[in-house]
Design a protein that fits this description.
By secondary structure, the chain is mainly α. The protein has one domain. Helix 5 packs antiparallel against helix 7. The longest helix has 21 residues. It is extended and about 50 Å long. The model has no long low-confidence stretch (mean pLDDT 91). It is found in: Membrane.
Amino acid sequence: MMAALFGTLMLASCTEMVLSRILHLARRIITPLVSGVVVMIIGLSLIQVGLTSIGGGYAAMADHTFGAPKNLLLAGIVLALIIILNRQRNPYLRIASLVIAMAAGYLAAWFLDMLPANTAPTNSSLITVPTPLYYGLGIDWSLLLP
């Protein structure tokens, strides 16, 4: 399955590179109104995903801890920090607000003891070089054309 995913993604990325060369010709069709509506629809469809993540995700639904105060506190810290940093005058803080908030959320999760236990082997090296095309390549047309 991974070979099919990698091969199909490589083919799709080549298609995207070719289409990017002629996309400027479609500006008459893709007006700011059309692109704005598409972005709004994508944002509205992500509301459910965001609310599920705020409550603790599907794992929290499975073990009946969805909406636990720890989950809501962690999401509130990250969201508040993003809003506060986006209101600053410093453009670097505004640009880096998501990364800073994720790092702060990770630290808050560590303090709240919400991080998973470390299961990494102790004899693993600090730097590992990946093997190119470890899973191979393949193309699954059902993944490319839905």
